Amino acid sequence: MLNKLRINWRALKTVRLMSGLFCFMIVYSLLLIDFKPTKRTPTKGETSPFDIVAPTDFSFEDKKETERFLQDEESRIESQFKKDPTVELKVEHNLTTIFKYIYEKEGQVLWNEYQLKLDGFKSLQTLGHKELLLFRNEIWEFLQKCLNQGIKEGGKFSDWETELPADVSALPELRSITERVFEPNLLYDREKTEQLRHDALSKVMPVFIQIRKGETLVRKGEVVTPQSFKIMKAIGLYENEKGTFYQKVGTLLFVMILAFIGYLYLSKFEHGILNSGQTVWMIVTLIILNMLFLKLFKLLLGYNISMENLMGDVNILSPAAFPLSISAIILTVLVDGRLAILVSVMLSTIAIYQLGASYYYVYYFLLGSFFSVFMCMNVNKTTELSKNGLFIGFFNVLLVITLYLIFENPIYFEDKYWIYLGRDVFWGFMNGILSVAFAIGFLPNFESVFKLSSAIRLLEFADLNQPLLKTLMLDAPGTYQHSVLVGNLAQAAAQVVGADPLLSKLGGYYHDIGKLKRPQLFMENQIGSDNQHDELSPNLSALIIAAHVKDGVEVGKAHRLPHEIIDIIAQHHGTTLLQYFYEVAKIEHKDRTQEVPIEQFRYPGPLPQTKESALVMLSDSVESATRSLDNPNASNIEALVKKVINDKFVEGQFNECDLTLKDIESIAKIFIKMIISLHHSRIKYPEQDKEVKKIMEQNGEV
């Protein structure tokens, strides 16, 4: 048995994994497939056969122009130098020393220190000390003048030679001495130069080319210029293998991120939904249907879905018309508002990805969907849902006006700003009305296909004048009264543990409808008659009693009860033991060696899978048990309620639903409070005969 169970779980996990991969590939494929007709964009030097317009707002850096500005600015930065004060002393010392060696005819020293040959200065050797000193001073005055002005590193003597005194310039020996001691005193300051260059270049802003959505890039009949080609290439009008590959990889990662976030949310906060195949498939179906609808909607919007079509006229349709809120409304009504918000976020990102619309539509889709969720939570009537369509429409109008004021600059629209605004306001309002209308129309289909019921549909079965409940009241009055009490108990308990109060109440109302097939065989309907089970064997009695669960499922299906109520009928006894008949069977078999098989005296199950099923199980057991109390005072009721609940817990009846110990404690408290109020003390009538009083009580007159 356990091995079979493990195999089933493995098979179930495998099926879920394969289903998940299948859905993943469908979503990924739909994002890659584009239904729009392909149109080749003319390349550089070709004549365009049609107007080419920008599909969206776009800006990109003109790198060549930016580089040109950087080079221009860098060329304006002059190299920085710092003055070396030791150079002047060094030059003066060298000049004086050279003249000294010439005067003293120290040829060897002159060569060793300055690489000057004494033979080259024969004309100077004939001069006296005063003449040499005069030439020395003239040269020094020239060098001092140069040093004061600043001789930059890398500067050449030839750049200054024209300023030499005439008598010095006339003698080659004096000129060579001057060139030998000539030395730059302004050294290149790399750090300061680099800092100035960095400061200057950092102030140069990149050159961006701004393209507005709908702006004409190349008109029909014009040749595509290099500049136009560069812009169209940057926008992405030319596909290439590398870009297509990157797009596919990015799309794959995008779908993986969405799937991962969805799985994390469901596993952390909505684990029950993750285990519910119907709900998961409904979410996947809604996403796929939205994507298909988006593809068709994109075709209606036109090739580039810009504010202007290829002819430059205002496009009547707008992304604001897409009714993304339909899915949010359906999920809110059928499942849960929090789940609807998660799916709305996913659908909004997919919509912007597919449409390529202005980024402000992200806020439009997200906030519009959120408001739709809030408006449709706890809606129980179709009329309420219809009225909410107007509120959603007005909210969309306010949203469009707000987003236009924030994001859309009138300058870019020239004289058509109010036309665009009016168009989006109109479609925003119609979006709210159409979303609700489509949601109401699709709800029955989703309820039928995925076996889910909205509160609107469930309320139809809450009326005690329902034919099935009226039949129960007439043919099995005891069961009917018991069922109404069970429904009230389950509803009260659901409110304190976060379950669905309406579904819990309806589960209580209909949980015992299987007793309609043989009402006289159940104790609560045997008023004034003998107990027929006294004539039956315990095995047969147990079989008859347990059969009311299967019979109830059949009756429920025959009367088209919602799937959730039928599940509660099937699960409300779980695998509970029919203790009374089991004990009787053991007494009858006490003289036999073979033990009584306990499995023959258990309900067939399954165990409760939801909180609502568990609440109906507890309400049924507690109501039946307390009805048999001889002295239903507060202490006895409290002890019995706790015992019944504890027995169910110990038996493992809640192992497959998400009831917590805290929930069980809260349920016990509300049950005790309500049952004590049901068994309140009555006024005694000593003047009346006991039998009369009993009849009056039975007739409900007391």
Key descriptive features of the protein:
two-stranded antiparallel ribbon, mainly alpha, 702 residues, disordered N terminus, 64% helix, 30 helices, elongated
Walk me through what this model shows.
The structure is a single chain. The protein contains 30 helices and six strands. The chain is mostly helical and 702 residues long. The longest helix is centred in the middle third of the chain and has 34 residues, at 417-450. It is elongated and about 160 Å long. The two termini are 55 Å apart. The relative contact order is 0.06. Residues 1-9 and 303-312 have low confidence and may be disordered.
Summarize this structure briefly.
The protein has 702 residues and is an all-alpha fold. The chain has helices at 2-32, 63-75, 86-103, 107-114, 122-125, 129-149, 166-170, 172-181, 190-202, 226-235, 241-269, 271-274, 277-301, 325-334, 337-355, 360-376, 382-407, 410-413, 417-450, 455-460, 467-475, 477-497, 501-510, 538-558, 563-571, 579-588, 611-627, 634-650, 661-678, 690-698, and strands spanning 52-53, 58-61, 81-83, 186-188, 208-211, 216-218.
